[in-house]
Design goal:
single chain; about 90 residues; alpha+beta; globular
Length: about 90
């Protein structure tokens, strides 16, 4: 399953997240700090969704209340919710 997530309060503009069986398969992030976001995308690949959420949730970027990693954790939460809807339908 692939979802698109529009982050809020950060430089990145769009996150495409592919998850299968609770494992992150691929993450593409448009906008933001390219090198850092490519690195984060590769680091979470193959990771359990819950583990990635636990590691990134609540991270702040400077004075902002959120960050791209925090927004990615929100995208992953949305992916879990979508997966739960599909399995319960």
């Amino acid at each position: 399953m692939t979802i698109q997530y529009k982050p809020k309060g950060v430089c990145s503009q769009l996150m495409n997240v592919k998850v299968e069986d609770g494992i992150i398969q691929e993450v593409q992030i448009l906008g933001g700090c390219s090198g850092n976001l490519q690195g984060i995308s590769k680091l979470v690949q193959g990771m359990k969704v819950e583990d990635a959420i636990a590691r990134m949730s609540g991270i702040k970027c400077g004075y902002k209340a959120t960050s791209c990693p925090d927004q990615l954790s929100k995208a992953l939460k949305a992916a879990l919710a979508e997966e739960a809807k599909r399995t319960n339908a």
